[in-house]
Design goal:
Blueprint lengths: L21 E5 L2 E5 L2 E3 L4 E7 L9 E8 L4 E6 L5 H7 L10 E8 L5 E16 L12 E7 L3 E3 L12
Antiparallel strand pairs: 1-2, 1-7, 3-6, 4-5, 6-9, 7-8, 8-9, 8-10
Length: about 160
């Protein structure tokens, strides 16, 4: 068996997906690549219940799911104002643009490994690059999104990443 791959019982390779190969889709169309993504997180609340006469433990019961972690996306600066325009929309009238989107983790051969759907996201923070004259680093912008839910979507074995 090869050292860097796994083989399922059916004989198909099941390599772990690389963390550097992901994309953002809107309406099923590839729209952007980012260099960093953080905040794909859902947490279950736990309710504790103390029962009289039981002193050696607390009952722990499942509570609601919390999606209160914002998603942060970073990418190298381009000539596009698209992220800034999305963030700035609603600055004067409060009518932010809510956009459902997907973050897709890809395999090295172009298939979808995981696919997270983000429901009704809107930007809550935009951060431009740190500029320094003696730096050789790429200028990076960051956008932080809040949302109304995160779902891990079902994908098929033949789902390919489509670039629009």
């Amino acid at each position: 068996m090869p050292s860097r791959e796994q083989v399922s019982r059916s004989g198909q390779r099941t390599d772990p997906a690389p963390a550097y190969k992901y994309y953002v889709e809107i309406d099923g169309v590839f729209v952007a690549e980012f260099t960093e993504c953080a905040g794909l997180e859902v947490q279950r609340e736990v309710k504790t219940y103390e029962e009289g006469g039981v002193n050696n433990y607390l009952h722990k019961l499942p509570g609601r799911l919390k999606n209160d972690t914002n998603i942060r996306l970073k990418r190298g600066i381009t000539y596009s104002r698209q992220l800034w325009d999305w963030f700035y929309a609603g600055a004067f009238d409060g009518r932010v643009v809510r956009q459902s989107l997907s973050i897709v983790l890809g395999t090295v051969d172009g298939f979808k490994a995981q696919h997270w759907n983000v429901d009704r996201a809107f930007p809550v923070r935009y951060r431009g690059p740190a500029l320094k004259a003696d730096s050789g680093e790429v200028a990076v912008e960051e956008i932080e999104l809040t949302h109304h839910g995160l779902e891990l979507a079902a994908i098929g074995a033949s789902d390919r990443i489509t670039r629009g």
